[in-house]
Structure formats: structure tokens, C-alpha cells
Amino acid sequence: MPMxxxxxxxxxxxxxxxxxxxxxxxxxxVDMALMISAALALLVGSLLGRSGRAPNLQPRxxxxxxxxxxxxALLANIPDPVILVDRRVVVIEANPAARRLxxxxxxxxxxxxxxxxxxxxxxxxxxxxxxxxxxxxYATRVPTxxxxxxxxxxxxxxxxxxxxEANVVLFLRDLTEARRLETMRVDFVANASHELRxxxxxxxxxxxxxxxxxxxxxxARERFLGIMRTQAQRMTRLIDDLLSLSRIELHxxxxxxxxxxxxxxxxxxxxxxxxxxxxxxxxxxxxRPDMPLPVLGDRDxxxxxxxxxxxxxxxxxxSGGVVALSLHRVESPDGRPVRIELQVRDEGPGxxxxxxxxxxxxxxxxDTASSRQQGGTGLGLAIVKxxxxxxxxxxxxxxxxxxxxxxxxxxxxHRLDSAQRPAVELPSVVE
Length: 431
Fold this sequence. Notes:
- The chain is of the alpha+beta class.
- The chain has 3 domains: 7-174, PAS domain (Beta-Lactamase, 2-Layer Sandwich), CATH 3.30.450.20; 189-250, Helix Hairpins; 252-431, 2-Layer Sandwich (Heat Shock Protein 90), CATH 3.30.565.
- Helix content is 45%, strand content 17%.
- It has 12 helices and 12 strands.
- A hairpin with a 5-residue loop joins strand 11 (394-399) and strand 12 (405-412).
């Protein structure tokens, strides 16, 4: 592609302006942003032969392609879309992120051909008219919904052949993830408040009744105290789950280092839930090889994962009469590390396909009334997901209405040498 003599300077200026905006966007101070921008401007200027070089020293012709390549590489490594247009709103330059966002974007073509956003185009006209920066928003719905904050600013070009008139740089900051997290936060607060308000309202109502009309009614007092105890236990479970989820998220980036036998943990959890299984008329079984299944993990967190999966199977799949756990090693044919897989299968009513992707969301329930009746908080699978994230594990849920549910958890196998092998036997765990 033939190189426009002025294009390298535009690349350098675009990088400098975009770095200021990017540094401020990610939380840096204005002073720090200006320092980064100044450093990059000097670097790019020296590489392009535009600054930092004595007037009597001319760059060698062989250096020009290298300088141009370095300038383009700097622009390419800005992770958000950056577009430079002239006073006719014709595209002069765009980095790869902008080309990915707008596949129809072409150099030397009007921006309106690929970006049909009246607010953005009006913002460009305002910048050209007044010289003042403008911020607006741009949203896409195809192929997925994404939201951007568009920062538009004038970019003087003193070495432009047209006489130094200002062009315009557009920096598009992706807000999609931030908006999604904000929505999750709002939903989380609303759901947690609702989940706590319901049992709290019941408690207050019964307390007022016991203080008033039922003050001398011994039968009502015993009945109401039982209900109050149930509601208080419900709030306790919810608060415990919220605290557990908070602790897991706090340490999610720290990988566990202790070797554990996943098979023994599963056996322990099955034994603990045997009374509940008998109460519900469910046969619960566990199948595992006669050998250690070592993984690196936090014992309490992995026990909580298995507990949540077993309890869900017993509560919601009990109608099938069978809950089966199985553990085995999974070897990958392409040479990837061996994984230890735990399966929990029930023969209950199953789950419709549209619910499965959302099962690990906080407070999401397929059947809200049934979940609350069973004592569920709506946080169990969210805890499982975040725990597995910390343990570099995977979670797969397979279900079909009328054909039961299978949940698969896989963790990387921890390879032990002969000196380490006894440590994984977990003598403190009683089978």
C-alpha cells in the first residue's frame, strides 16, 4: 500500500491523543495521562523523524518503512476503537479494533457509510464547528448488543498539506461489560433485599401477634415460634451463602496449592447426606476407582461444591428415586493434561433448555416457589461456579425435561511423585 507522506504524523498524533483518553478512562490521573501521552509523542516523533532530531540530520530512506510500521503497531495495540477523520468526515485512519467493530469501514470513504449513528455524526460536526470536545454514546445490536462511549476531539495537523486545519479523532470506549456488571449489581441488591425482607416481615408479623392477640394462647405460641425458627434459619442460610460467595470471589484469583483426593471428599459427602436420602426415599450411590484422584484445592470449598450438587439432586430430582455420583480420570486425545471429573446424575423431572445458561446466576430459580419450599437460597450454583473458577475447573449442566439432570465438574489432575503420594490420602477425612 503506498504511504501518504503525512500519514505517519497523523498516526503518531492519533496514538498520543488516544493514549490520553485511554489512560483517563482506565482510572489514571490527568497528569499521568499527559505524561504517557508526551512520552509517546516524543517516541513516535523521533521514530518518524518529526521531532527529537536535529534539523540538519535527515532520516535515511530505509528507515521510513520501519518507522511507519512501529507507529502502526502502537496504534494497533490500543485495545479500543480509534478513528481519525478529516473535515469532510472522510476516514483517514482506523486501528484494527475499529475495523473489527465496523467491518464496512474503509479509508478515504465517508464515515457515515459504515457508522450510521446520528449522535456521533452530529458530535463530529459540533467539534469541527466549535473545537470543543464532545462525548456521546453509540450502541450496536448485531451480532450482539454492545454499548460505547464515544469521545470526539479536534486534532490539529500543522504538517497537513491543506494548511493545518483540525481533523477529528474518535475514541470509542466499550461500556458493555461495565453496564452488564452494573445491571448484575442492581439485580443482586434487589434480590438480596427481597429474599431478606420476606422472612423478616414474617418474623415481625408473628412477634406482633405474640405480643398482642396470642399473648396467652400457648398453642398459637408454639406454632408461631416454630414458623419463626424456620424463617430465621432461612435468613441465616442466605447470609451464610452471601458471605461464602463474597469470600470465594475475594480469593478467586489465588489458585489453591494443597493436594486433595476428590474421591474421598465425594464419599464423605455421600455419607453425610445418607439420612436425607433415606428421608426422601432416594437411593444415593457413589462410584470411584480404587485409587487416589488427586487435585489441588481448598478442602472446605470443594466439599461445599459437592454438597450443593448432591443437595440439588436430592431436593429437585428425588422423584426419580436415584442419585448417582461417579468419578473418573479423563484423558485428552490431543495431549492436554488429564482431568478428574465428578458427575452427579438424577432421574428427576429435568430442566428446560432455556433455563440452563442462567442456572449459575445469583438468585436465579427455575421454580421460585419450589426452591423456597425446599429451603434453597438461589446462590448454590453461583457458589459452585466461582469456586470452580478459583480451582481452574469446569462446570457442565446437561438436562432435558422428563429425562433427569447430569452435572459434570472437572478439575486438573495433580500429578504426584512417590514422595508426595501419602499426602493426598487425607487421613483426617473419615470415610
